[in-house]
Amino acid sequence: MEERGAEVVGFYLSHRIGLLCISLVFMGVVLELVRRSHLKERYALLWLGAALGGLIVGVFPQAVVWFSNVFGFQYLTVFYITSFLFLLLLVLVFTVVISKLSERNRDLAQEVALLSHRLSRLEEGHVRDDP
Q1: Distance CA 78, CA 65 (A)
Q2: What is the reported pTM?
Q3: Under the phi-then-psi rule, with left for phi > 0, alpha for psi from -120 to 50, and beta for the rest, what region is 37?
Q4: SS3 for 38?
Q5: Which tens digits make up the pLDDT trace of 62-100?
Q6: Could you tell me if 78 and 63 are in contact, meaning their C-beta atoms sit under 8 angstroms apart?
């Protein structure tokens, strides 16, 4: 019965093996990027979640059938909705990051301006004292 659900979705054994391999390689790449400090852990969680989703669908393709039955969607619609929600989450995460960086940039610019003003006042004080 398990294979029947997989075939209904169009996940034959070769598709499942391919999805599992791609998900495992992707997971390995993400972990290697984290290990080399090219990717922060908080961003890696999103990508690891995507790879885990691929692993789950590869191991349990009937999950797509179950979701389509629960929500009354066609199989392809489940994939489109899942992809859309992932991209929406990705945009939300990066928007939050950009907002924090923008705020941090503004704070640093103000701090640099204050330090520059203080430095110029100190230099003026030394110039007046020298002669």
Answers
A1: 9
A2: 0.70
A3: left
A4: coil
A5: 888 888 889 898 888 888 999 999 999 999 999 999 999
A6: no
Percent of the chain with pLDDT over 90: 61
Confidence at residue 44, expressed as pLDDT on a 0 to 100 scale? 93
Q: What is the mean pLDDT of residues 97-114?
A: 96
Those residues with Cβ within 8 angstroms of residue 86's Cβ, 6 or more apart along the chain or in another chain:
50, 53
Q: How far is CA 25 from CA 12, 17, 20, 86, 90, in A?
A: 20, 12, 9, 19, 20
Residue 72 falls in which region: left (phi positive, over 0), alpha (psi -120 to 50) or beta: left
- Asked whether 78 and 68 are in contact (CB, 8 A), the reply is yes
DSSP classification of residue 10: T
101, two tokens: 């960086």
Q: Extract the tokens encoding 129.
A: 């004292």
Residue 116 burial (CB count, 10 A): 10
User: Which residue carries 């039955």 as its tokens?
Assistant: 69
